[in-house]
Each structure stands twice: as structure tokens, then as C-alpha cells.
Amino acid sequence: MDYDNSVKNRLKRIEGQIKGVLAMMEQGKDCRDIITQLSAARNAIDRTMGVIVSKNLEQCVRENVEKGQSTEHLVKEAVELLIKSR
How many CB atoms are located within 10 Å of the residue 13 CB? Predict the structure, then answer.
């Protein structure tokens, strides 16, 4: 699967968030502020995983439809991936 720039940009933003958390720790910032930022990073990761799974699912479904193959197993796999990531 090819990953477009929007997905890569999401990950770069997440990387920046994590670096920001490390800086906050080095500065001795309050625990609540650090946890808030970590929670935001986790949510961003969750959303990015959803985007990757949905784009992959879309691509795989198209390919299977073109080949005349079933797509049910693809949807099941995608749901399992999302459940596993939680």
C-alpha cells in the first residue's frame, strides 16, 4: 500500500507532540499537562490508524471487486485490526 502525504504529515505532527511532551518533562511541567498532551497524541495515533485501515480497506475492496472476488473477509480483517489496536 502506498501511504500518501496526508498520513505521513499526521505522523510528523504526532512526532512533534511527543517531542513536546519530552520537553515539558525536562522543564518539570505539571503532571496533568503532560497527561493531557499524551492523551492528545494517543487520540491522534488512533485516528491515524483508522485512516490507514480505511484507505487500505478501500483499496483492497476495489481490487477484489475488479477481480470478481468476495470482499467480506476484508471488512472482517479491517474490523479486527481496529479492535486489536484498542
Answer: 13
Residue 59 or 2, more confident = 59
At 55, list the grid cell. 484507505
pLDDT score for 9? 96
Residues in the chain: 86
- Averaged over 51-79, what is the pLDDT? 89
Say which residue the cell 483499496 belongs to: 59
Residues 6+ apart with CB under 8 A from 71: 60, 61, 64, 65
Tell me the three-class secondary structure of the chain, residue by residue: CCCCHHHHHHHHHHHHHHHHHHHHHHCCCCHHHHHHHHHHHHHHHHHHHHHHHHHHHHHHHHHHHHHCCCCHHHHHHHHHHHHHHC
- Which pLDDT does position 39 carry in this prediction? 97
